[in-house]
Design a protein that fits this description.
Pfam families: Esterase. This protein is of the alpha/beta class. The protein has 12 helices and 8 strands.
């Protein structure tokens, strides 16, 4: 009799634990007219998504250079972290789209229009196909490295769409870093985004670069509009991108844009980003709860 009772209790605990886990659907596809192809995405649905009719806020969580839609679940353990924080943060849908190496912008030659896809197609698709709360207050964006840059692009160019933004180790570069940057970096990465290959020195500061330089966007943007977004910035003290992130911090101070800025011990790796994500989810949750 005692053994039956013990088995029942173990089954109850196991069932309860399982029921508290959110669901991750991997490598789903959405058709994109802007990109002329299908785009894959992962999505995390809160534990009670299938048991309720409620609508949920949404976090768009962006991957870094060389990763894809699976990066944040495979290496970042986003679903495990979100599950552990149940009761501490607002239940939310987390959407993780593949962006290739687009840096989340429209390329200078118009061949890759990722920003158009994300803003005009992807967000409307998610709102139409999942039970989201489709307003600015209940939408946030965060990401690491290239995805941190993408986070800032979306939040500073489209502040009317997001309540909060949390770039981690974001790919922000000063003009000096672009001018003096390694030719291979320009030819293999930046040139595809901002201008032709083999540009050197100040010629790299093309019109398209200026339109998509985070520091220039902040410098020229309407401060009142940027203040409508809550910013959380985090970068490791030994990260190779720390200089750009410090410049970002300074630019926001100069513009009098409120923001939280964190520099912790660490480098550019998943250990750092996994430890950052719980605080990001807590920060974003506050935005979702504000009236």
């Amino acid at each position: 009799m005692r053994m039956k009772k013990l088995c029942y209790l173990l089954l109850l605990v196991t069932t309860t634990t399982f029921a508290q886990q959110g669901l991750v659907k991997e490598s789903l596809k959405v058709k994109s007219a802007a990109l002329g192809k299908d785009v894959e995405y992962n999505i995390y649905l809160p534990a009670d998504y299938d048991k309720s009719n409620r609508q949920y806020p949404v976090l768009y969580l962006l991957h870094g250079y060389g990763d894809d839609e699976t990066g944040w679940t495979q290496f970042g353990e986003a679903q495990i972290i979100a599950d552990k924080l149940q009761g501490e943060v607002a239940p939310m849908i987390i959407v993780m789209p593949d962006a290739g190496v687009s840096w989340y912008i429209n390329s200078y030659d118009g061949k890759v229009k990722y920003e158009d896809f994300f803003i005009k197609e992807f967000i409307p698709y998610i709102d139409a196909n999942y039970r989201t709360r489709p307003t600015k207050q209940y939408r946030a964006v965060a990401g690491l490295s290239m995805g941190g840059y993408g986070t800032l692009i979306m939040a500073t160019k489209h502040p009317e769409l997001f309540s909060s933004a949390a770039p981690l180790s974001s790919g922000v570069f000063t003009d000096e870093e672009i001018i003096n940057g390694d030719p291979n970096m320009w030819n293999n990465v930046m040139g595809n985004l901002y201008g032709k290959k083999d540009l050197t020195g100040k010629d790299r500061l093309t019109e398209h670069y200026n339109k998509n330089s985070i520091l220039k966007i902040i410098e020229t943007a309407n401060a009142d509009e940027l203040k409508k977004v809550r910013f959380y910035i985090d970068c490791g003290d030994k990260d190779f991108l720390i200089k750009g992130n410090m410049a970002l911090h300074a630019a926001l101070i100069d513009k009098k844009i409120p923001h939280e800025f964190r520099v912790r011990e660490g480098v550019h790796n998943w250990t750092y980003w996994r430890t950052a994500l719980p605080e990001v989810l807590k920060f974003i949750s506050v935005s979702f709860h504000q009236q």
